[in-house]
Amino acid sequence: MSYSMNDGLEVAKQAAADIDAWLCAQPGTISVINVEDDPAFQSRDIDLIWTTQKGEVLVEVKGDRWNRTNNFFFETHSNLEKGTLGCFLYTEADWLFYYFVNTRLLYKLPMPKTRDWFRITMNRFRERSTTTPVGNSRYTTVGRLVPIPTVMLEVSGVVRQQM
User: Fold this and answer.
1) Could you state, in order of their start, the residue ranges of all structural domains in the chain?
2) Domain 5-162 class?
3) N or C: which end of the chain has fewer CB within 10 A?
4) Could you read off the pLDDT of 21-45 as tens digits, one per residue?
């Protein structure tokens, strides 16, 4: 499977905008700051800083259009050719908000609890890869297709939310 760089950016921007607006409308929200373009937060794979009356919450947003498969795609390598780990394996976010943009369905995954579970169980899930053309070159993203019902059943604290 192949995706263009623009397709991925479009989905990511839509996901971040939708989640930002939704968080701003939540009771107790003081502020939401988008830090996607801040290198200090990019290196930690954090997209949003959500401040509530209870404190600061670091959020990574994963936008996806492939909601018909009933799977999450947990990235293990973002760029296989460069040996770059997938964001799922290194994010320092408190929560991964996995959002299906077409259906406006959000799954809130507690981190690092979900990652710890995944590392132990990942070999039981199918590995898949996609290629993305960039100029005259391309890179390969690798991850695992993880059934959503399995995550809901085996990881405590996951929340499914229709937006």
Assistant:
1) 5-162
2) alpha beta
3) N
4) 999 999 999 999 999 999 999 999 9
